[in-house]
Design goal:
Number of helices: 2
Oligomer: single chain
Strand order of the largest sheet: 2-1-3
Number of strands: 3
Order of helices and strands: EEEHH
Radius of gyration: 17 Å
Largest sheet: 3 strands, antiparallel
Helix content: 25-40%
Length: 66
């Protein structure tokens, strides 16, 4: 299963099929090598989305008299 996925190795800065390097050095899994090559970009976009969701959660009900 994992051999069919792709990972980005943050140490070697290479895309790997399956987890060949230490798991602590890998980002993924991704469905394609192209997607794995964009690991940092994808992670940044996900983090931004989660930060926005956190802010909405923390501000829920603010200013509505609750």
């Amino acid at each position: 299963m994992y051999e069919e996925k792709y990972y980005y190795n943050t140490v070697t800065q290479q895309v790997e099929r399956g987890h060949q390097g230490p798991i602590a050095n890998l980002m993924g899994p991704y469905d394609s090598p192209e997607e794995a090559a964009r690991a940092y970009e994808i992670a940044a976009a996900r983090t931004e989305k989660w930060d926005q969701e956190d802010e909405e959660w923390e501000n829920w009900g603010a200013g509505s008299g609750q």
